[in-house]
Amino acid sequence: MANELVVRTRAFSDDLKRAAIALENTTWGQLGYLNYTHSHRAYYDQILETYADYQLCLVNRDTDLPVALANCVPAHYDGGLDGLPAEGWDWLVESGAIDRGGRANVLGALAISVPDSLRGRGYAARMLHEMRLLAKRRGFDALIAPVRPTAKWEYPYVRMANYIGWHDAEGRIFDPWLRSHLSQGGRLVGPCERSMVVKEHIAFWETWAGRTFEASGDYLVDGALVPISIDLEQQIGVYEEPNVWVTYAS
Q: d(Cα 41, Cα 110) in Å, to the nearest integer?
């Protein structure tokens, strides 16, 4: 069948691993500052290597090239799913890396990557479905996801707690990516307010913002879900990105 799509993992081959890295970099390039959370810098690459068989790739069989990715990590969580940590993505990455799967009882969804040129074809929904199947197949109690709402960047001054309460004219949740999660059986738990925290020198943020900061205060950077807080006296800028916990029972 021409252009048949199959799911493989990064463990399939070194060539697929390299192609997956390139696709991920292309997809998230505009938001590259998210790579500078402490957890990302310290543990993310390690997770992709240690758990290569949990990194899913939707591959075009004709070309052997991935068209979408889903990155996951096994993790351990003792609390109820209504009380997942406010540290969200950063907590999930750090917990998965430190525990190394020894006591893992949940599967954490870290990212789904689809390049702009391939969006609108259902690939993201397909990868979400594949992560749910993986969680069930491996016997995890739940799939948990610190979701980054795709339209929130258009409303950076709206609190996430308020944003997730918005609905469209048809009564559905307003954000399209959250809507996709709910349509597949996800349960919206609530915001994780400090899901990805980046604390860097002002020069770092001036590079990403394409401007200089002449006073302390809040500033916007392309794609950011909330403003960056700039402190000229300390020469530091802090970005605390809120995400939204969504859970799936296995």
A: 14
The pairing of beta strand 106-113 with beta strand 142-147? parallel
Inside any domain, residue 177: yes
- Calculate the dihedral angle through the C-alpha atoms of 27, 92, 108, 199, rounding to the nearest 10 degrees: -20
Q: Which pLDDT does position 198 carry in this prediction?
A: 98
- The length of the chain in residues reads 250
Q: What CATH number is associated with residue 135?
A: 3.40.630.30
User: Domain range holding 47?
Assistant: 5-194+244-249
- On whether residue 121 sits in a domain, the answer given is yes
Helices (H), 100-173: 123-137, 160-163
Residues 120-170 have pLDDT tens digits of: 999 999 999 999 999 999 999 999 999 999 999 999 999 999 999 999 999
The candidate with the shortest Cα–Cα distance to 221, out of 235, 206, 236, is 206
The pLDDT value given to residue 225: 98
Domain count, the chain: 1
pTM of the predicted model as reported, rounded to 2 decimal places? 0.94
Report d(CA 128, CA 59) in Å as an integer.
Answer: 15
Two tokens, residue 194: 């400090």
In a domain, 223, yes or no: no
Q: Is residue 134 part of a domain?
A: yes
